Amino acid sequence: MSKVRPQSSPKSKRVSAVRKSASGQKSLVRARAEAKAAIAEARRAHERLRDALDILPEGIVFLDADGRYILWNQQYADIYKRSADLFAPGARLADTLRIGVARGDYPEAAGREEDWIAERLMLLANPRGRHEQRLSDGRCILIEERRTAEGGVIGLRVDITEMKRREASFRLLFDANPVPMFVCALDGGRIVAANDAAVAHYGHGRDALLGMGLAELHDDGDLPDLADESADAAGRTFRQRKADGTAIDVALFSRLFAWENVPAALVAAVDITERKRAEARVAFMAHHDALTSLPNRVLLRMHMEEMLVRARRNGLGVATLCIDLDNFKAVNDTLGHPFGDLLLQEVAARLRSALGEHDMVARLGGDEFAVLHPDVETPAEVGALAECIIDVVSAPYSLDGHQVTIGASVGIAFAPVDADDADRLLKNADMALYRAKGDGKGACRFFEAEMDARLQARRRLEIDLRNAVAAEALEVHYQPLIALDRRNVSGFEALLRWRHPEHGMVPPSDFVPVAEETGLIGAIGAFVLRRACADAAKWPDPVTVAVNLSPLQFRNGALLQTVKDALERAALPPRRLELEITETVLLDRSDHVLATLHALRALGVRISMDDFGTGYSSLSYLRSFPFDKLKIDRSFVRDLGSNADSQAIVRAIIGLGESLGIAITAEGVENEADLACLEEEGCKEAQGFLFSRARPQFEVLDMLAAGSRRARDVA
């Protein structure tokens, strides 16, 4: 039996309906709240996405499949210089393109606006990836677009204007640079770019050059490490070859950079071939003589050190030969310095030819040479070499049509017997050379220990002489000149004397050469001039004073002023001063020497030629300058009464003087026979020990005060 359900009342039905309505309403409110929350979250996510996009340096835009703007960042709007309001949601790319075309933002669209817009819109269906776009204000934009999975487009915009400017600057500096430049791939050094200077300098066509590796330009095929920039400050030097095979030296400078987004090296090739040649020439000149190309003293010493080390190992000796040319100065002075240079070059060539394979010849300066002869077994072999050198050098020379003959003197020193170091060995050989020249030239001499002792004595003499000059400890004595017709004193010759505190009177023949060699002669000559003029000012007016001049005094250019100062300081009339020169002064027939002599004579000073007759060209000098007096050398006066040849020479000189109106004085008269012969030949003036020795000033004053008519009585 079925159970009968009780029928609901109207009231209960109403209550149920209200409950259902309230439940539905609550669900709706909840759904709306959830939707609102979802929208808020979506907005927050959108804002977070926009914020994230805004911090990116690139401009980014999202378009749907219909070309509507979905999302973009501020950089995108800034690149196109528009506000973000222009890209309202739902706006189409076509609209913004039309606005941009109307504003003139796209120069390439001018004249074909709609076609350009259509072409641009077609890219939405098939984006072409990365490309550049030039804007009307000159900026360049890099565009990259990709299709999304939903059929839309994501676009990237980068303002590459500055990068393009840097690239243009690089191109300008690269292409127009006068220095050859390459761009080389780091992997293998392949040349991927070369400027015009590189193409022209190396002689390869551009296509051929771009197909080469950098190592192919190198002589040894070695590829430098382009990634190593540690040596770039000074450059790395390589030997390269041009297309025609010419070898060149280059310094490569490289810097790493990106070439079309690929690591590469920018390489500059500086041709230093001429610089290297110049450096080589400088290095050569530092160790070689410029005139003869022989090694100089520096290189000679280096080789001496090497030979001495080897000699200590093998037990053999090393010989050093110092060579000095005899009579070279006469050739140089008579024919001129150009001929002297030619002669030195010829001598250098002869010396090279006379030496062995292991010998070395060097020029030490002037007309002095040196030879190193290693592996010496006996002194005899070195002596034979020296004789050979003398013979070779002494053979006649033909210099531009002139036949010239000179000689050679050689000094020899051995290591380790005479010295065991380079400086001492060369010094000892030089001392031996000094002895060879002193013994008559044209000879060779071996070093002896006593030579060093003499050199030390000479050095002490030089030091003492310097001190004497500084202290004005030198003395001037005067030897009278006698007028033979009246037998009275017509003048005095000033003669230098040195009273050494330890050695007494030092002969002028000992210390005057030292003064000339050391340069002291200038100071000494000035001292003698001042003292002689000052002393002569105290003599009676007719009496003259004669002062000898060294050839070296003419070289410093101060002689004329020195004479003027001496005369003015002493208040001595120039006519009372007589300057005596030798033929050596006139060997250098320079304008300066003759001009100085003429200026002295114009001053009123008398000029005499001393030692007349001893030179081979004395007569020719009488045409060079109008001398006031000739002094017959004592070698012709000695034993004149018994020597017919001397009588003939003296007679000729006296006659020559009378013909030319030049006064004649005979030197070295020591006996009555010689004096009688001179008077018979008509000589008017003489000096010598027969009349008087040289006397100090106080004795001269006594002599003049006595007023003797005969010099013999005064003596």
What does this structure look like?
The protein folds into four domains: 54-159, Beta-Lactamase; 164-276, PAS domain (Beta-Lactamase), CATH 3.30.450.20; 290-447, Alpha-Beta Plaits (2-Layer Sandwich), CATH 3.30.70; 460-714, TIM Barrel (Alpha-Beta Barrel). The protein contains 25 helices and 26 strands. The strands form five sheets. The protein has an eight-stranded mixed β-barrel, surrounded by four helices. A hairpin with a 3-residue loop joins strand 19 and strand 20. The relative contact order is 0.04. Residues 708-715 have low confidence and may be disordered.
The best one-word shape is elongated
Output the number of helix runs.
Answer: 25
The SS-based structural class is alpha+beta
Strands of the widest sheet, in order across it, are 18-19-21-22-23-24-25-26
CATH superfamily of the largest domain: EAL domain
Q: What profile does the largest beta sheet have? A: 8 strands, mixed, barrel
Total number of beta strands: 26
Helix content: 40-55%
Could you list the spans in which at least 5 consecutive residues all have pLDDT below 50?
708-715
What CATH first level of the largest domain would be assigned? Alpha Beta
CATH topology label of the largest domain: TIM Barrel
Instruction: Report strand %.
Output: 15-25%
How many structural domains? 4
- Rg value: 54 Å
Report how far the terminal alpha carbons are from each other.
202 Å
Task: Examine the secondary-structure arrangement and name the CATH architecture of the largest domain.
Answer: Alpha-Beta Barrel
